[in-house]
Amino acid sequence: MDRFIFITLLFVVISGCSSKVGLAQYANPDELFIDIHGEIENPLIYEIKVEYRTHSQINQCTNYHIALGKDVAQQYEVNYQPTIIDESHSIKVPLKELDPSTICKWKPVMAFVCIGSSTKEPISCTSVFSFRGIHDIDPITTLECSENRFCFDSKSNLRSGAINEFNKKYQLDLVLK
């Protein structure tokens, strides 16, 4: 019984320290989106993970990062599943899951592709699109994915494509290397 109380108290303390302030669902998440489509080689599967961060410097909207020795933005992630038919895929990714008008000003900052296979769930994620107010992306983004589910841009850049044009289609091809 004492162990159960200890674990319960520990859970309450940990979750209390990591609460997200101003975290509210937005009424129309599809108001801002990107459509991703392209080719995908069998047996690859994937999901898209969108990372949101706070853009307010008030204490309730940041967390202290011990290793960096400073306050950093809070983060929240949302995963989306694509439609895969044969060797084609498509997904409409909403970018307003969280209400940006709250005190913490939550905004999407990055989209990741999490790769798996028909026998293994997606676990390894690679940044593919950033939403940083500039537009620097090729017409087609190709990620080469190894059997251990790590992906790299086929042009060997480590940067992700920067997008500031929303509500349009982007081509993403996923190939085995």
Helix and strand layout, with pairings?
Blueprint: H1 2-17, E1 33-39, E2 44-53, E3 62-65, E4 70-73, E5 75-80, E6 83-85, E7 88-94, E8 107-117, E9 120-130, E10 140-145, E11 151-153, E12 161-162, E13 169-176
Parallel strand pairs: 1-13, 9-12, 10-13
Antiparallel strand pairs: 1-7, 2-5, 2-8, 3-4, 6-7, 8-9, 10-11
Kindly estimate the percentage of residues that lie in beta strands according to DSSP.
Answer: over 45%
Topology as H/E string? HEEEEEEEEEEEEE
- Mean pLDDT over the full residue set: 85
Structural class: mainly beta
How many angstroms does the end-to-end distance come to?
A: 53 Å
In DSSP terms, counting alpha (H) and pi (I) runs of 4 or more, how many helices?
Answer: 1
**What is the number of independent domains?**
1
Largest sheet: 6 strands, mixed
Number of strands: 13
Any overview of this molecule?
This protein is mainly beta and 177 residues long. The chain has one domain. 9% of the residues lie in helices and 46% in strands. A six-stranded mixed sheet has the order 6-7-1-13-10-11, with no helix packed on it. A five-stranded mixed sheet has the order 5-2-8-9-12, with no helix packed on it. Strands 3-4 form a two-stranded antiparallel sheet. β8 and β9 (120-130) form a beta hairpin. The longest helix is centred in the N-terminal third of the chain and has 16 residues, at 2-17. The chain is globular.
